[in-house]
Amino acid sequence: MTGPTTTTRRWRRPRGRVLVIGAVVLAALVVAGVVAALLLPGGGPGRGDDRRGVPGIGLTGEYDELGPGGPGGPGGAGPGRGDRGPRGEEFADAPVLVGTVVSTSEGTLVLTPDGGAQRSLRTTDDTRVRGSGNAALGDLAPGERVVVRVDGTGDAATAVSVTAPQARVTGTVTALAGTSATVVAVDGRTVTVDLAGLGQQPAVGDVVVLTGTITDGVTLTADGVRILPRAS
Fold first, then answer.
1. pTM (2 d.p.)
2. What b-and-e string marks burial along 123-148, b requiring 16 or more CB atoms within 10 Å of the CB?
3. 186: burial class by Cβ within 10 Å (0-12, 13-18, 19+)?
4. Sequence-ordered alpha helix ranges (H) in the chain
5. How many CB atoms lie within 10 A of CB 17?
6. Rounded to whole angstroms, how far apart are CA atoms 156 and 120?
7. Residues 24, 30: contact at Cβ < 8 Å?
8. β-bridge mates for residue 130, sequence order
9. CA nearest 67: which of 204, 227, 231, 183?
10. Using an 8 Å Cβ cutoff, are 93 and 99 in contact?
């Protein structure tokens, strides 16, 4: 006689269930990482230089967050300007000259550096010109303020780039005489502004942001204006 037959059952792991649980856990980790990146300082889109704007130089004011280059204003490079140079050009440790254009000709830029004697710089086809609507050396006007990055010394000094920074002032119009305005800047300086080139004229008492150029070392010739709402 034969004894009773014993049936042996093999245990099988529920592979399908394990895979589903693993996928759910992985998805949860990914979502948690995205949320952390958005909430932590410095994380998420728009938290770096792309949001804050590229720093630059203002000749008559540094209140870019209120100006045409700031939020809600046309043009400009945006708020947060500082140590990078005009229009985002990074000067690093390169030698620079800041001064006023005297003249330009093929291969030569003549300028008067602030506090120094007039000098000539070589220019080449690679010399870059930018800022305030300038794209070539011939666009620079006598008396225009410029920042020049220089390579070489003495007679061999060559202008690598020439930037005409946009002048800007934020303040209150305290007097008008024809197209000439007196503006008291928010930092207390008094600035004379030529308004002749503007289509919209501010009134006495308006708080304004004016942009333009300085060609005589004193007067801001305005080419843009933003009139801020008055407090009631």
1. 0.54
2. beeebebbbbebeebebbeeebbbbb
3. middle
4. 15-39, 49-52
5. 9
6. 10
7. no
8. 163
9. 227
10. no
Mean pLDDT by groups of 10 residues along the chain of 232 residues? 52 55 61 50 37 32 38 36 44 83 96 95 96 91 92 94 92 96 96 94 96 83 94 82
Both tokens of 220, joined, read 């801001």
Tokens 């870019």 sit at which residue?
64
CB neighbour list of residue 221: distance below 8 Å, 6 or more residues apart:
193, 194, 196, 197, 212, 213, 214, 215
For residues 59 and 168, is the Cβ–Cβ distance under 8 A?
yes
Per DSSP, which regions of the chain are E strands? 96-105, 108-113, 119-122, 128-130, 145-151, 158-163, 167-177, 180-185, 190-194, 207-214, 220-227
The single-letter code of the amino acid at 154 is G
C-alpha to C-alpha distance for 10 and 70, rounded to whole angstroms:
72
3-state DSSP percent of the chain in helix, strand and coil, to 5: 15, 30, 50
